[in-house]
Amino acid sequence: MSERETTKIYPIKADPRTDKYKYTADSPSEPTYEKPPLPIWVLIFELILALLALTTASMLTFSLFTEYTHTYINTVSPTLMDASPAAEPSDMANEADIPAPVYVPIYYDFTLPVPESPAVGYDYFNDTVFIGDSRTKGLIMYTELTPYDFSSVGTNVGTVQTKAFIRMEDENGELQNYTLFEALERESGNYKTIYIALGLNELGWKLDKFDITFRELIANIRKITDVPIYLQLIMPVTQKASETTQFGITNDKAVVFNAYLRNAAAELELFCLDPTGMFSLEDGTLDPAHASDGIHLQISSYKQLADFYRTHIVDTEAYDNTRTIVPEESEGTEYYTEPAADGNVVFTP
Questions:
Q1: 21 contacts 34 by C-beta, under 8 angstroms
Q2: Are the beta carbons of 229 and 324 closer than 8 angstroms?
Q3: Total H helices, total E strands in the chain
């Protein structure tokens, strides 16, 4: 080999700060070169490879999930029981394991007045019994209500039980006088409800006497029939009638007796009707505009009262406690009826 100067070739090294490649040589004057950019087709090829790898990974994941789901359903899902007659008894569900439906009773609250209800027609009252005094007579006389009329002018909870004041035909078609209980027995099965509106003529009584007699009336009725009984509270009279009464018919006594009747209705399970505020003024007295004589109502007011009856009906089929319970015979209770300090009437046995 001839003597000549040997050319030295140095490896290419990268500068990590600039990512540029240089030829290294002993002489600093040797030329410096930068790495050329990759061709566009190379970049496209690398992108295609990346997409293929991603697609392959997704398909593999989906395949594994499908295989797992199919295996889980076939091994874990319950098998429907064969309910055919040929099934073995051991395969059938045990009836004792099936919970029985729970019945929740619904009770009517007898401590509250009958709430408003959809109006019924006048013919609804064709098979009802009305027991009352002269105000009940006016209600039947001046309206389209046509119940069994077992009312009488001037009657009270005592005379209504003993006096033969009801005119009815006997077996021979002749009119005869019957007591209330005789009439109820004769018409038993022909009426579905009883309405009682008494107490006005008894406002001059002591409350203990009214209590004894009223309880006797309800007990005697329930010995004959178990139909629902409505009890109307005592409507007020005008202020003038209350101040000039000769029979103790005052609004103050009406308040006391109505408080008693509310308690009795709750105890004896009577449906309480409260029309006392329909025709009264702010002070609780009867508005003279609705009164014909200070005590009885005008004809137009009786028609309003009839509409009140028509819109206050209890659906006894909707409750579990609306069957009448026959109470034990009671001798009544002595009550102290003086107003308390707060003005409320206190009933103390």
A1: yes
A2: yes
A3: 8, 9
Residue 71 lies in a domain: no
Contacts of 263 (CB under 8 A, 6+ apart): 347
The string of DSSP codes covering 171-183 is: TTS-EEEE-HHHH
**Region of poorest pLDDT, from 17-21, 93-97, 255-259, 318-322:** 17-21
Which domain, by its residues, includes 266? 122-318
E strand or H helix that includes residue 121: none
pTM here?
Answer: 0.67
In a domain, 55, yes or no: no
Q: Which two tokens stand for residue 343?
A: 């003005």
Residue 164 lies in a domain: yes
**Over the stretch 132-184, which tens digit does the pLDDT of each residue have?**
999 999 999 999 999 999 999 999 999 999 999 999 999 999 999 999 999 99
**CATH number for the domain harbouring residue 217:** 3.40.50.1110
Residue among 273, 185, 255 at smallest CA distance from 223 = 185
* DSSP labels, 253-281: HHHHHHHHHHHHHHHHT-EEE--TTSSB-
Between CA 36 and CA 41, with CA 39 as vertex, the angle to 5 degrees is 165
- Long-range CB contacts (within 8 A, 24+) of 2-9: none
Contacts of 27 (CB under 8 A, 6+ apart): none
Which residues are within 8 A (CB) of 55 and not within 5 positions of it... i.e. 6 or more apart?
none
Least Cα distance to 137 among 200, 179, 215, 185 occurs for 200
State the total domains in the chain.
Answer: 1
Q: What is the DSSP letter of 58?
A: H
Q: How many CB atoms lie within 10 A of CB 237?
A: 23
Q: Can you read off the two tokens belonging to residue 200?
A: 């006005």
How far is residue 184's CA from residue 181's CA, in Å, rounded to a whole number?
5
DSSP helix/strand/coil, 156: coil
Q: Taking a C-beta distance cutoff of 8 angstroms, is the pair 21, 35 a contact? A: yes
